[in-house]
Amino acid sequence: MDPELEPDTARHLQALTQAVVDDTATAYTEDADLDVEAHFREEMEKHGITVADDEWVADLAVNIRSGHPVVVGGHVHGDHE
């Protein structure tokens, strides 16, 4: 998260991102052909957020496809952290 964000804004963004991560992981369990990166980005953009960190999104997608838990703001991202 951006260190320059106000604490309440950062918490809201973290919670929103976690919800989208969880939604993306659920969608992937229901459709193994899902483009995880594209789905995550599309869902974030529905909330007016463009994710600029391509490496983070790619890592997120690897972990979701591998079945690893992803905790936004934490450091539980499977073995790819």
Taken as a percent bin, the fraction of beta residues is under 5%
Instruction: Give a short account of the largest sheet.
Output: none
Distance between the termini: 16 Å
Overall geometry: globular
Detailed description of the structure:
The chain has 81 residues and is mainly α. The chain has one domain. 59% of the residues lie in helices and 0% in strands. The chain has three helices and no strands. The chain has helices at 7-30, 36-46, 54-66. Helix 1 crosses helix 2 (36-46) and helix 2 crosses helix 3. The two termini are 16 Å apart. The model is unreliable at 75-81 (pLDDT under 50).
Index terms:
81 residues; mainly alpha
What order do the helices and strands come in, and which of them pair?
Layout: H1 7-30, H2 36-46, H3 54-66
Helix pairs in contact: 1-2, 2-3
Brief summary:
59% of the residues lie in helices and 0% in strands. The chain has three helices and no strands.
